[in-house]
Design a protein that fits this description.
Helix content: over 70%
Radius of gyration: 28 Å
Order of helices and strands: EEHEHHHHHHHHHHHHHHHH
Structural class: mainly alpha
Number of helices: 17
Shape: elongated
Largest sheet: 3 strands, antiparallel
Strand order of the largest sheet: 2-1-3
């Protein structure tokens, strides 16, 4: 009998992990419900196996854009009256992403055997996250799967667009920075030694800055020193990733990122836009508020923001209001909190929180454009400074060379 691993929540809202044996996925979920647990994630425990069958799906990843395209196509098929199994099969056949293709085939098979769409998708958390599954489940329960898929596609398309804008804004400065470092190292390692040899033949004492560059060139040309430098960089990256995996490290680094001079405001606005868009979509789809906040917390991408959402969720459990709880966290901007407060008072929270999402998404777009306009001249100055430092180091001794020649 297969063994299933579940992540669930009891009647008090406490998270629990449980292992259960059942004949199939549907029976396992039924047994957990009988115990009074609300299942968040359920998948079959994978025993150790030496199976050597070639499966390259693990090499790929499912991007937000992939899921957005799938959701849009699936919504069109459902609205056209195509049965779920046939629609999933059609979309799986035309998929180019191997991981998504494999998941869709498995979901189609489970649905064909009598499982619900949300339960089948929940078995593939690497493809369909809690947000996706919760909205699909709400659509199934409310009989509005087509509408929910349309809304889900819009949420994912907006997220993919925003993500692409940020990546595009960062691509230029990263490329220029890599090129600048490469040019600087090339000049230090290969060009400086030529002039150092000329200066040594002429004799005389080099200026301090030129001598510093010559010493740096000698250091970098030594293979042992290069190995040490690479080792230090690898050690620093490993220490950073290890520290970030801890709760204290994640909170510390994420808090620092929110307080950065240029990028902090962009990160904060992006977090508010993401929270508002996802929470609004979940609420409008009929997902309970506590479940919606839990999903938004897990998809926030920033531990400080996640802590604020978690505190909000705990206060709502005791009868508090979302706006007051968010205000206490001192993470969300006052304007967003005031708009949410108005939505709570007027009973139009869904509509108001979507307006908050629209506003801050436009703010993020404007911030990205402003950041790009700032970074371009800044990177030019940095590149000019790095190359200019080499030229200055080479030209400073020329005045003394002329005196030596005389």
């Amino acid at each position: 009998m297969p063994t299933y691993v579940a992540r669930a929540r009891d009647s008090r809202g406490n998270a629990r992990n449980k292992t259960i044996k059942a004949e199939n996925l549907r029976e396992a979920r039924s047994l957990l419900r009988d115990e009074g647990l609300f299942v968040l994630e359920l998948k079959e425990a994978q025993p150790f196996s030496l199976n050597m069958d070639l499966d390259i799906s693990f090499l790929s990843s499912v991007s937000v854009k992939d899921k957005a395209v799938f959701s849009r196509q699936f919504s069109s098929l459902v609205s056209a009256g195509v049965p779920l199994v046939r629609g999933l099969g059609i979309l799986a056949d035309q998929q180019t992403n191997p991981k998504l293709k494999k998941a869709l085939l498995a979901v189609s098979n489970d649905v064909q055997q009598g499982g619900s769409l949300s339960e089948s998708m929940r078995a593939h958390p690497e493809v369909f996250d809690n947000l996706y599954v919760a909205m699909i489940q709400a659509g199934e329960v409310g009989g509005v799967l087509e509408e929910v898929l349309e809304r889900l596609a819009k949420v994912l398309e907006d997220a993919a667009k925003l993500e692409q804008q940020i990546k595009s804004a960062m691509a230029y400065p990263i490329a220029v920075a890599v090129l600048a470092v490469a040019v600087f190292l090339g000049m230090v390692i290969f060009l400086i030694p030529i002039f150092a040899g000329i200066f040594a033949q002429l004799g005389g004492k080099l200026p301090f800055f030129t001598q510093l560059m010559v010493d740096l060139s000698g250091f970098l040309r030594n293979p042992v020193n290069m190995v040490i430098v690479v080792g230090l960089v690898v050690a620093l990256v490993f220490a950073y990733t290890t520290f970030y995996k801890t709760r204290v490290g994640r909170e510390t680094i994420d808090r620092l990122s929110l307080n950065m001079p240029i990028f902090g405001d962009l990160i904060r606005k992006n977090a508010v836009a993401r929270f508002s868009r996802i929470f609004g979509a979940l609420s409008r789809s009929g997902v309970p508020i506590l479940t919606s906040l839990e999903i938004v917390r897990d998809t926030s991408g920033n531990q400080v923001v996640a802590n604020a959402i978690d505190a909000t969720r705990e206060e709502i459990q005791t009868g508090g209001m979302i706006s007051i709880a968010l205000q206490r966290s001192k993470v969300f901007p006052n304007m967003a909190i005031q708009m949410i407060s108005i939505g709570e008072e007027t009973g139009e929270l869904d509509s108001m929180i979507n307006k908050v999402a629209d506003f801050y998404e436009s703010e993020v777009e404007a911030a990205v454009k402003a950041l790009t306009s700032i970074m371009e001249p800044l990177m030019i100055v940095v590149v000019g400074g790095m190359v200019g430092s080499i030229l200055v180091a080479m030209y400073l001794p020329l005045f003394r060379v002329f005196d030596l020649i005389k």
